[in-house]
Amino acid sequence: MALKLRKWDVVEELKTDEDMALYLDAAMAEAGDDAAFIAKVLGDIARARGMTQLARDTGIGRESLYKALSGEGNPSFATILKVVHALGVSLHAAPATAPVKPPRPARRKSAGELAAA
User: Fold this and answer.
1) Which residues, in sequence order, are CB contacts of 59 under 8 Å at separation 6+?
2) What structural domains does the chain harbor?
3) Are 70 and 47 contacting, i.e. CB atoms less than 8 angstroms apart?
4) N or C: which end of the chain has fewer CB within 10 A?
5) Of 59, 48, 63, whose CA–CA distance to 86 is shortest?
6) CA distance 59 to 57
């Protein structure tokens, strides 16, 4: 008996708004400077929500959205903002790490302190 496998699609797992927000949040934490990865993740969320409705909500053509959010497109930041807003998710800024304070230079001893030592 042959075993039938089908390709796993994350869209099937994105059932709630919380699922979608957590997926985007995790992707942003992992993406580094890979903007195409974030665009692809937004595309996954868009497919889960419905690309036709997203096209209506953003005023961007459905085909253009598929291309921009494929991970191979290069959407403008304005497009990303329209998509994020229409999907009902938000982007948040936070420090990547605790700010690193430069070490304080050692205080030089005065001539009097050096003589007394």
Assistant:
1) 82
2) 35-90 (1.10.260.40)
3) no
4) N
5) 59
6) 6
CA distance 59 to 66: 14
pLDDT of residue 91: 82
Q: Which two tokens stand for residue 104?
A: 């304080």
State how far the Cα of 23 lies from the Cα of 42, in Å rounded to an integer: 9
Report whether 41 contacts 27 (CB < 8 A).
yes
| pLDDT at residue 117 greater than cutoff 90 | no
- Tokens representing residue 94 in the block: 């936070």
Q: What is the pLDDT of residue 111?
A: 66
| Tens digits of residue pLDDT in 39-79 | 999 999 999 999 999 999 999 999 999 999 998 989 999 99
| Spatial contact of 5 and 40, defined as CB atoms under 8 Å apart | no
In this structure, what are the phi and psi dihedrals at residue 101, rounded to the nearest 5 degrees?
A: -90, 135
